Amino acid sequence: MRSTAFGDGYRLAPFCFPARARTETVLRAKLSYGALRRAYEVGARRGLHALAAEP
Questions:
Q1: Could you tell me if 3 and 11 are in contact, meaning their C-beta atoms sit under 8 angstroms apart?
Q2: What is the tally of structural domains in the chain?
Q3: Which of 3, 8, 10, 48 is most exposed, with minimal Cβ within 10 Å?
Q4: What is the pLDDT, as a whole number, of residue 47?
Q5: 3-state SS record for the chain
Q6: CA distance 39 to 48
Q7: Are 27 and 36 in contact (CB under 8 A)?
Q8: Residue range(s) defining the domain that contains residue 28
C-alpha cells in the first residue's frame, strides 16, 4: 500500500506497528524461526507475483 495515496497526514507505521507486533508475537510462539522465515519468504514471493500480474 502506498502511503502517498492518502495524503501527507497519513503515516503507515504508527497505524500498522501495533497490529504487526501482536501478530508476530503469536506467530513466533507457534512457529520455529525457520518456519516463520519460510512463511515470510513465501508471502513475499506471492505478493511479487500478484504485483507482476497487475496491468
A1: yes
A2: 1
A3: 8
A4: 82
A5: CCHHHHCCCCCHHHHHHHHHHHHHHHHHHHCCHHHHHHHHHHHHHHHHHHHHHCC
A6: 14
A7: yes
A8: 3-53
Residue 11: the pLDDT is 64
Q: Distance (Å, rounded) from C-alpha 1 to C-alpha 6?
A: 10
Q: Which amino acid is at 53?
A: A
* Average pLDDT per 10 consecutive residues for the chain, totaling 55 residues: 56 72 88 90 84 74
- Count of other CB atoms within 10 angstroms of residue 36: 14
Residue type at 31 in one-letter notation: L
Question: Nearest to residue 11, comparing CAs of 19, 20, 25, 1?
Answer: 1
CA distance 20 to 25: 8
